[in-house]
Every structure is written in C-alpha cells, then in structure tokens.
Specification:
The chain is an all-alpha fold. Helices cover 63% and strands 0% of the residues. The radius of gyration is 25 Å and the shape is elongated.
Length: 68
C-alpha cells in the first residue's frame, strides 16, 4: 500500500494565506452601516409578510401552508 500525500489544506497553507489587508479605516463605518441596513431590511420584510399572511390566505382561499 502506498502512502497518500498530504492534502494541500494543511495548517501551514492555511496560515500562509490568513493575512489579508481588510478594509481601510475610512470604509469601516460604511461596512457597518450597510450591514445594519441589510439586517433591518430582512427583519422588516419578514414582519410585513407575517402580518399580511392572513389577508393573503383569505384572498386566495387557501390553507396556512398554501399561503406560505
């Protein structure tokens, strides 16, 4: 039986590529703002759908699973 070579994803390869520059100091507040805005939009979208679901269910004359 032959020995298998080490896979390329060993610890040394991971550590060698771990250092990245990241974003600049001027971009950090914008990244935070974009993250907060995206999270807020997802929350609001989920809330609106849950509030509107009974009306959608009544208009389409369907069950809860059908409306979802």
């Amino acid at each position: 039986m032959t020995a298998l070579p080490r896979p390329p994803c060993d610890e040394a390869v991971i550590r060698a590529g771990a250092h990245t520059a990241g974003c600049g100091d001027r971009a950090k507040p914008w990244v935070l703002a974009a993250t907060i805005l995206g999270s807020s939009m997802a929350f609001i979208d989920g809330s609106v759908v849950n509030v509107a679901l009974p009306a959608i269910q009544a208009d389409l004359a369907t069950s809860v699973s059908g409306a979802q």
